[in-house]
Specification:
This protein has 221 residues and is of the alpha/beta class. It is elongated and about 65 Å long. The mean pLDDT is 92. Bound molecules: adenosine monophosphate.
Length: 221
Amino acid sequence: MSLKMIVIGCGRLGANLAYRLYKQKYQVVVIDNNATAFNNLPNDFQGRTIEGDALNYGLLEQADITEAHGLAAVTNADAVNAIVSKIARDLYNVPYVVTRNYETHYRTMQETFGVQIVSSTAWGAQRIEEMMFHGEMFTISSAGNGEVEIYEVSIPAGGNGKPLSALMPNEQCAPVALTRAGRAFIPNCDTLLQTNDLVQISATFEGSKILRQRLTQMTEA
Ligand code: AMP
């Protein structure tokens, strides 16, 4: 028997999430107070849909919340998301509960509920800003006390056709992922780079210095 997941809100985000969960073989229940929102689901989605306000009495139980393994509250109403998440976690002990933050100025209010929050709006804006203004290399994650960091590097025209080893000093760096035209895979040192590839590389401080130098050389080539 597969695990049950509840998605509250079937708009742009909720429909996408529900479909992903369905594809991962979870039993999915999607709730929205506007039935036309279910049109956002791809035709081959086979989870349950329930029309109704997530705060309506009895609705969460109708969605089998007592057996749910996870719940994502991803409506465009931040207060609804926070309240439903708190109910799911504290009243029904749902193991995995995630809240969407929609309007960034409501994030502080949501934080008072002590729930896990994902702010797709702020996260998206931050990523876009980094890609627009912070040059070809920036940190996306930090391990320990920053001894090792994961960098994202955008390959300039000068790197086109060169192997990843031309960029990455072996001992101080390791390849993590390469995204090309929106699709990611795990590269190795022999992978040939293409202009605009996004390469994620973990590196020590020393490694990052060499990486930056080589990237600058590629940019100026
Ligand atoms: P979007 O912003 O495209 O991700 O859409 C958000 C979805 O949340 C819409 O389909 C709304 O109808 C839905 N929604 C908003 N408030 C509620 C609520 N109280 N209960 C259920 N769904 C809701």
